[in-house]
Amino acid sequence: MLAFYRRLYPFKSVFTWLNHEHAPTKLFTHREFAFTLQGDVYLRYNSFANADELKKQVCSLNPTRFEIGPVYSARPRDKKTVRPAAFSPQLRELVFDIDMTDYDSIRTCCSGADICRHCWAFIAVAVRVLDRALRDQFGYRHLLWVYSGRRGIHLWISDREALELTDEQRRALVGWLTVIQGGKEMHKKVNVRQGAKPLPPSLASAYKTLEPVFHDLVLEDQNCFESEEGWEALLHLVPHPDITKDLRAIWEERPGRSSKRKWQDFEDAIAQKRRSPLPGLAAIKEDIVLQYTYPRLDAEVSKHRNHLLKAPFCVHPKTGRVCVPVDPRTVDRFDPASVPTVGQLLHELDSAAAPIADENGGAAGEHHSDWERTSLKPYVEFLDKHVKALLEETRKSKQKTDLSW
What we know:
single chain, alpha+beta, five-stranded antiparallel beta sheet, 15 helices, 9 strands, 44% helix
């Protein structure tokens, strides 16, 4: 890990992303960093003056990973010397966490910590829906999606309006976006309407994206209703006993019917019952599609400014994979298994041509750009492109402030 931190970790890119400027500001100097060391030793309330100081400390501690927290009213390293009332979180990116284990009840290809391209499709559609909702409904522009290194994905929103959200505002925003609610004992987890009223406009828009995904992913790829356990889970979501009784009889008699055929049976049953006075039949189908495909958010991660989240480009200790940025426009083609591991990157570095020596015999540019000679390059460049937009917005904001005088 030490070689990775010394030669490959893009400290300057991460610094500029957090700081929004090239010269250090409180967005970085008052930012909390937490380190996890070998033996599960956990060090909180670290802060640094610049990227070089952060790199020096990381290389000294050689942590298994490190996390990023909020910007405090005082420097976190001075926490013990300031009054408790004078030390509180002030600013924080709005963050989201989507974990594959929350889909264990519906995915059929993997379970637990395992993940493959098939079940990654659940994460991919969650990214597409959430990314669009946050841009269209809230106007956020600076969204950075980062693969967690194993079985999930994180989102960091760096817009100034997002940084300034209070905990109460974060809870309200997450509550608005949360559709799947309830524990394992609760069958129906979607309750987003009153009676049989139409879906709210925001969810109606998401539904248009999710319905074709439901057919491709849930019915065909995952074949979620093939087993008795799978089809019983579906029947639990149908509140009309006569429909469930008829469908159960058909499926018990012909258990080999595919999920696609079973869904057709369900749609046929609804079509027949529409001639009777049963309310909300169309709503039942919509709610089932949402339950199986809508993003499953870990709401607690997003609600509080003082929550810590693993830094981009850290290495997952179990898989060795780097937590790389993901482009939401191509998330459907993203393959977790193709993400570079720390061992692979160091091997690439050793195999690459040595950097040109300077006139004193040392390696030119030290190790600042060694990532350019590895498969980490496109991911760092993606972050740098994201950072460029942040820098431009900061420049325009300062220019606007100067003109107002």
